[in-house]
Amino acid sequence: MNDMQLDQLRKRLLGRGLALVPVGPLGRDLRMVADGTDLAMVQGVDNLAQALTVAVLTPLGGDPFNTDFGFDGLNALADEVTPVLQRERVRVSIVQLLQKDARVSRVIDVRLVDGRLDAPSTGAARQLDVTVVFEATSGDRFTLSAGNAGTRLTNG
Q: Which one of 14, 81, 144, 148 has the fewest beta carbons within 10 angstroms of its own beta carbon?
């Protein structure tokens, strides 16, 4: 399969959606095409990256039209008092989030990168960076990183 055919396959399997632009650290807004006549679209890998970013930034149940959408990891950090339980709830929450997306065929690895939860504290020190490696239905392997530096999806 040549590169053009592989790109078409990715676009078909990973879908398309409305393009969003960041507004502040957590917000997203619709983007217009350059001439301002229509809404911009994303497709393929860009669509998957955008969808997973929005899912990680949305608290579970935060979408009134789809209460099963979102990431429950924020509740883990707020509810659990034991660092080990916090870590495991975040790990389970990220796996559950990925398993809900039909474009994700399997989760390969979940790593909790930041060790700041080892000492009990409050505020910014309770942040946790997560790196997940998964395989998409297109056969591509991706790495999703979420944490203080934002959320990003890389191929490979």
A: 81
Over residues 2-16, the pLDDT tens digits come to 989 988 999 999 999
> Tens digits of per-residue pLDDT, 103-145?
999 999 999 875 554 554 555 455 678 899 999 999 999 998 8
Confirm or reject CATH 3.10.450.40 for domain 3-155, answering yes or no: yes
The domain locations on the chain are 3-155
Long-range contact set of residues 36-43: C-beta below 8 Å, sequence gap at least 24: 41/16, 41/17, 42/16, 42/17, 42/18, 43/11, 43/14, 43/15, 43/16, 43/17
Nearest 5 degrees, angle CA 29-CA 97-CA 57? Answer: 30
